[in-house]
Design goal:
Largest sheet: none
Shape: globular
Order of helices and strands: HHHHHHHHHHHHH
Helix content: over 70%
Radius of gyration: 18 Å
Strand content: under 5%
Length: 295
């Protein structure tokens, strides 16, 4: 039950973080927002890990878990989040979050590739249902896109969202493996965040959009609120992965799409419309993730 509750809390925090991120993107590049979020992660997670170490409550560290924590940070915290924020700017919060429901399908794929776990019949039905739901979402948005330029932007956003979902899935899979070796969520979160920060700082040397935002931007409550909610979400995600299988965690924290649907009309008025077909597609994708879990 601890893992399931943590996954639900992570879904709530991720959903709020996503909507707040969409708000600040009118004035701040997505990569700069990611940097603020990662720095917040590093400060909080390293402090918690240091406190745990000082109190002697950290378990023995298995050497093989460190490379997995590093890979989890690079795949999920760095790659997944940057691609997710870029797709968020192009697609808007509801559609971008819905496309990220494909994370469950990628998790199933990585399980087949790395663990030789063959999908069962209901899992295949779930994959088909997710695909149908995502197709409906994209079809409805393509109808509204109109011009070729907007359709090209939609296609680019789709590819970024799918790549981000794959990054999140890979990150969650290797984190679960690392936590099986060293059951220390705060340590894993700290190592992953530091890895992501090093990678992002390297990236920022060549791209000005990825650098630290100005003092005025840092005073925006949506930027800071998004970073804090994202930090809470990641910590709860690690707790969930510590106590529950990655497939169950993926399904539960994908409920963030419902959070986005509920609060985006309040916080993103006039920015990201929620159509009936988008809701239908998201419902099908959520049903597909449940089939994969129950399969």
């Amino acid at each position: 039950m601890t893992g399931e509750l943590a996954a639900l809390g992570s879904a709530l925090a991720f959903g709020v973080s996503t909507v707040l991120a969409r708000r600040f993107m009118e004035a701040i590049p997505p990569e700069s927002g990611v940097l603020v979020s990662i720095v917040t992660n590093v400060v909080v997670f390293t402090a918690l890990a240091a406190i745990a170490a000082a109190r002697g409550v950290l378990p023995p560290i298995h050497p093989a878990s460190i490379p997995l924590f590093i890979l989890g940070g690079a795949a999920g915290t760095l790659l997944g989040r940057n691609l997710s924020y870029l797709s968020l700017e192009m697609l808007g919060a509801p559609l971008s979050t819905t496309i990220r429901l494909s994370t469950v399908a990628f998790t199933l794929l990585f399980g087949l590739m790395f663990l030789k776990e063959l999908p069962r019949a209901w899992q295949l039905v779930g994959l088909a249902t997710i695909s149908a739901g995502l197709w409906i979402c994209l079809w409805s948005r393509e109808r509204a896109a109109g011009t070729m330029a907007r359709r090209t932007k939609l296609a680019s956003g789709l590819l970024l969202a799918l790549a981000g979902a794959a990054g999140f899935a890979l990150g969650d899979t290797v984190r679960r493996g690392a936590l099986a070796l060293t059951p220390a969520p705060v340590l894993g979160a700290a190592v992953g965040a530091c890895t992501a920060l090093l990678g992002h700082l390297t990236w920022s040397r060549f791209h000005s959009s990825a650098r630290w935002p100005g003092a005025q931007a840092l005073r925006r409550p949506d930027l800071l609120g998004s970073a804090v909610c994202n930090t809470i979400a990641i910590l709860l995600l690690f707790v969930a992965l510590r106590h529950s299988p990655v497939a169950i965690v993926s399904v539960l924290y994908n409920l963030q799409v419902l959070v986005v649907f509920m609060i985006s009309p309040l916080l993103l008025r006039g920015q990201d419309g929620i159509t009936l077909w988008l809701v239908v597609g998201a419902a099908l994708a959520l049903a597909g993730t449940t089939m994969i879990l129950m399969g």
